[in-house]
Write a structure and sequence with these properties.
Layout lengths: L4 H13 L3 E8 L4 E5 L5 H21 L7 E6 L2 E8 L3 E7 L5 H20 L40
Antiparallel strand pairs: 1-2, 1-5, 3-4, 4-5
Helix pairs in contact: 1-3
């Protein structure tokens, strides 16, 4: 998926509204980067890890009967990683310092996720790239086997001289 300027603009505005954010990434649920503002963090790796964590989180919510996954929050010794649903096919992952107001993080993350979801869901579909297939060798049609009727083996034969 190509980087979409309106999505990248939303990520920049989000980081301006929440100064404790150190990064923001919009990715497809398949782990492909849509847009990112993640200085110092490799976006493709973060998108892939987000997709993996999302898969586990969805299974946890299903197994516990909690409904569709809305968000995922991970707290480390030096800050937070928060992932929010963004439409039908994308997620928003935010990286924040440990001193962030978590309520504000959720408020802004949910709003931005909804806006990014609208943008992503309205993108024109990208046609799948299918590699050209090598020309197949011509197939031979099998001819039916014709069998001649057999004569019984114990039938006496007569010969006249």
């Amino acid at each position: 998926m190509a980087v979409e300027p309106p999505i990248l603009d939303e990520l920049h505005r989000l980081r301006a509204r929440v100064p404790q954010l150190t990064g923001a990434l919009a990715a497809g649920v398949d782990g492909l980067v849509i847009a990112h503002d993640t200085p110092g963090v490799e976006p493709e790796g973060l998108a892939a890890l987000t997709a993996a964590a999302l898969g586990v989180a969805v299974r946890v919510t299903d197994a516990t009967g909690r409904g569709d996954l809305r968000e995922l929050l991970v707290r480390g010794a030096r800050g937070y990683v928060a992932t929010y649903a963004a439409g039908r096919t994308a997620v928003l992952t935010l990286l924040a310092e440990d001193r962030v107001n978590v309520g504000r993080l959720h408020l802004e993350g949910r709003r931005a996720g909804a806006r990014i979801g609208e943008l992503v869901d309205n993108l024109p579909p990208v046609p799948p790239t299918v590699p050209p297939q090598p020309a197949a060798a011509p197939t031979r049609q099998r001819q039916p086997v014709r069998r001649t009727p057999r004569t019984p083996t114990n039938t006496p034969t007569t010969t006249e001289s």
